[in-house]
Amino acid sequence: AGAKLFVLRQGEPRWCELRGGQGGDAAAVKCLAVSPCGRYVASAGNDKSLKVWAVVQGEEEGKCLWSATFPKRVSSLAFSADSGVVFAGDKFGDVRCLAVESPRTKETDKGTEIDPRRVLGHFSSIITCLSVSPCGRYLASGDRERKIRVGCVPPSPVESGVHEIQAYCIGHSAFVTALCFASSRSLISASWDGTVKLWSCEDGAEKDSVHLGAGFGGGTAPPI
């Protein structure tokens, strides 16, 4: 038992076992993200933990580099454009972040623990998806309440918070299921309302919309 990651490298598929996880339902992977550099995979499941894995070839392949416990279950993941930070949205409406190579820690009664830093909140609405622009400037987040926020990522440190909102993208009639930047200026979203929309990141204007049928949600099931 235990989680496994299917790695496809240069057209030669093979299984890469993620070592260091726990078996059972608590270890079930609910969301994944692959770093732009291709060296890391982040995963999260029912046990409220976020794990970062090495997927480079060699002795480190498949190794769990670290694991962090969140207050609520993580529902979405995304890496920064430079692969140095992983963002995690949870079912309480918060987005937190951690440095991939040197995550922030704190001292507790149980010893030293990794400390995810809150950078953005959606006011108790479940975060359903995250995406970071290719330029690294924007962090887009979608939620259960049909809202999309495009926040400005601070140059450094990211942990200081995504306090400046560049735009709100409002127009879906059901919860947002997927986000993807088409460029550093354009954002694509999918929703359970059956539409795929194209937005301007700068002012949140809807540039195009295609209806693909009721219940189409970008290949995802309704989050619970």
Strand-residue proportion = over 45%
| Helix/strand/pairing category | mainly beta
Mean pLDDT: 84
Low-confidence stretches: none
Q: How many domains would you count in the coordinates?
A: 1
Measured between the Cα atoms of the first and last residue, the distance is 25 Å
The helix-strand sequence is: EEEEEEEEEEEEEEEEEEEE
CATH top level assignment: Mainly Beta
Question: Which percent bin holds the helix content?
Answer: under 10%
CATH superfamily, called what? YVTN repeat-like/Quinoprotein amine dehydrogenase
Please outline the major beta sheet. Answer: 4 strands, antiparallel
Biggest sheet, strands in spatial order? 3-4-5-6
Examine the secondary-structure arrangement and name the CATH architecture. Answer: 7 Propeller
- Give me the number of helical elements: 0
Shape: globular
Stated plainly, the CATH topology is called Methylamine Dehydrogenase, Chain H
**DSSP, total strands:** 20
- What is the CA-based Rg, rounded? 17 Å
Describe the structure in your own words.
Keywords: Nucleus, Repeat, tRNA processing, WD repeat. WD repeats lie at residues 22-63, 169-209. A four-stranded antiparallel beta sheet has the order 3-4-5-6, with no helix packed on it. Strands 7-8-9-12 form a four-stranded antiparallel beta sheet, with no helix packed on it. It has a four-stranded antiparallel beta sheet with strand order 13-14-15-16, with no helix packed on it. The chain is an all-beta fold and 224 residues long. The chain has a single domain, classed as Methylamine Dehydrogenase, Chain H, CATH 2.130.10.10. It is built from no helices and 20 strands.
